[in-house]
Amino acid sequence: EVLLQLAALKHNVSGFNGIVIPSPWVTEYDRRPVWKQKTSKYPTFVFSHGDLAPHNLLFDTTTMTISAVVDWENAGFGPEEFLDYWAVEKDSYYAMYRDETKLARLISLLE
Fold first, then answer.
1. DSSP letter string over 9-32?
2. pTM of the predicted model as reported, rounded to 2 decimal places
3. Which Pfam families does this entry report, sorted A to Z (predicted)?
């Protein structure tokens, strides 16, 4: 529920506080040292965690619900299409690293 609330946050500038740090699956494919902010006339960028995967979730062992999300260094505002690639299942998460066509298309949204 909290992640949906965060995704509802929108902004007209990408990144966070002047810095753009793409998801690890982006930076593994494209190792440029600096990513420039993008601006839009309208608030088209959505807030995302940037590295949502099982290793960044803490669970309440009594209720087996998510109690915390950690590792927020990749968080910020980015293209809405990136929300489709938050994978919480291991095989899907690592599959993103192997699909170079998909990666190239998503990276083009950051340029």
1. -EESB-BBTTB----HHHHTT---
2. 0.76
3. APH
As a whole number of angstroms, the distance between CA 1 and CA 61 comes to: 19
| Domain boundaries along the sequence of the chain | 2-110
| Residue of 26, 36, 28, 18 whose CA lies nearest to 104 | 26
Q: H-type helices in the chain, by residue range?
A: 2-7, 24-27, 90-98, 100-110
Q: How many residues does the chain have?
A: 111
> Token pair of 82, please?
């990136």
Contact by Cβ (8 Å): 104, 30: no
